[in-house]
Design goal:
This protein is an all-alpha fold. It has 18 helices and no strands. The protein has helices at residues 2-37, 39-55, 62-76, 79-114, 121-151, 155-178, 183-193, 196-209, 225-249, 252-274, 279-288, 292-328, 340-365, 373-394, 396-423, 429-448, 459-484, 486-502. Helix 1 runs parallel beside helix 6 (155-178) and helix 12 (292-328) runs antiparallel to helix 17.
Amino acid sequence: MKSRTGKALRNTVFQLLLELVTAGCGLILPRLILSHFGSTYNGITQSISQFISCIALLKSGIGSVTRASLYKPLAEQNSYAISEVVNATERFMRRIAAIFCIFVLVFGAIYPFIIDESLSWGFVFSLVIILSIGTAAQYFFGLTYQMLIEADQNNYIISIVSIVSTLVNTLIAAVLIELGYSIHVVKLGSAIIFVVPPIFYMLFARRKYGVDKTVPANEKLISQRWDAFAHQLANFINNNTDIMVTTIFLGVKEVSVYAVYNMIVNNMQKVVNSFSSGMTAAFGNMIAKKELNTLKERFNQFEAAMYGICALLFTTTVSLYIPFIKIYTRGISDVNYSRQSLASFFCLAAFFSCIKLVYENAIFAAGYFKKTKVGAYSEAIINIVTSVFLVRKIGLSGILIGTIVGGLFRTVYNNYIASRYVLSRNPIRLVYAMIYTICCSVITWEMSHFLPYYRINGYLDWGLMAIYTFTLNLIICVGLGFLFFYTDYKALIVQIKAKFLRT
C-alpha cells in the first residue's frame, strides 16, 4: 500500500515537471516556426505529424493489453512470465514497425497531392520521411519496454528521460532556426534527438527486469490487443481527426490556427493527466491482489480530485485563452487567430477528453477491453459524422462540436461500465460530479467579468492576470469541492499529510 502511494506521488511530481517543461518548450518552437517560416509551414508540419499519428494507430491496443498482462507477474515478481509477455509484445511490434515503414512511404508519395499549396513533391515527401523517424525508432526499440516500465509504476523514469530530450530538442531546434537552416534540417535535428529515448528504455528495462530473450513468446497473453484497439481508435479520433478534417476541408492555414489553439489546451490536458499518471497500474495492482474495497475508495477519491483539477484548470484557461493568443500571434497577419468561440469549444472538448480517461483507468486496469469496444466504436462514429457534417457550416467550431459530443457520450458510457462491472457502485455519481463542474464554470465565468483582461498588453501583464484568475478560481473550485465531495477530499488530505510526514 505504502509502495503504491509513494510511486503514485513520485510519478505525479515528475509528470507535472515534464508537462511544465513540455508546455514551455511547446510555446517556443511553434512561435519560432511561425515567425521564421509562416503559417503555411507551421500548418503543414502539424498536419503531417497528425497523419503519421493516423498511421501509428496500427500499434493501438497493444499497450493497454501488455500493461494489463504484466500487473500480475510484476506483483508476483515472476521474471519468466514477464519475459513471456515482453517477448510476445516485441515480436508484434517488429511486425508493426515493418508495416509502418511501408505506409510512411505510400503516404509520403500521396500527401503532396492532398494539400492545396505550391510546394514541390520532393519537399513534402522528404519532410514526411523526416517526421516519421522518431515513431519508427519507438516501434523498433523502445515501446515494448516503455510499457513494462509503466506497468511497474516507474513512470517517473520515462518522465525524466522525456524532460531531458525535450529540453535538448528545443535548444537544438531553436539554434538551427536562428542560424537560418531549412525546416527539413530543423526537423531532422529533432528526429535524431528523439531516437535516443527508445534505445535507453530497451537497455534499462532488459537489465532491471531480467528479461530473458530465450523465453518463448506467449501471444495468448496479449490476445485482447484487437479489442483494446477499439479504445485506442476512439482516443485517436478525438485527438487527431480534427486536424485531418481541417486539412481536407479548410486548408493548412486553418490547420495552423487549430494547432496554435490546440497547443495551449493540449498542455493543460497533459497537466491534468499527469495527476493520473500510473493510476491504471495502481488500480491493476489492487485488482490483482483482490483489494476491491480499497479500489473503490481510492477510485472515488481519484475521481473527485480529477473533477476538481479539471474544473480549476479549464475554467482558468477559457478566461485567459484569447488574451494569450493575441500576444502569441502578434505581428502575424496571414490568418485571423483571435476567435473567442474556439476558446470555449477547445476547453469543453479537453474537459471531456480528460474526464473520460478517469473511468478508462479502472476499465483498463480490470482488462475489460472486449466488453467496452462497442462504446469506443460508437464514439468514433459520432465524432466523425458530426465533424464532417458541421465543418462546412461553421468551420473549426463544427469540428470541435463533433469532438465534444463524442467525448460526452464516451464519458457517460465509461462511467457506467466502470461503476457497474469494476467498482460495484451507483453510476449516478457522474450526475453529481457534472453538477459540481457546471457550478464551478458558471461562478468562475461570472467572477471573471470583474477582472480587467482588456488591459493585458504583454506576457508580464498576462502572467499577473493568470495568477489572479487562478487564485480566484482555486478558491471557488476547492470550496465547492468540499461541498460536493467532502468525504473524498478529507481522505485525500489525510493521505497526503501522512505521506509527507513519513518522508
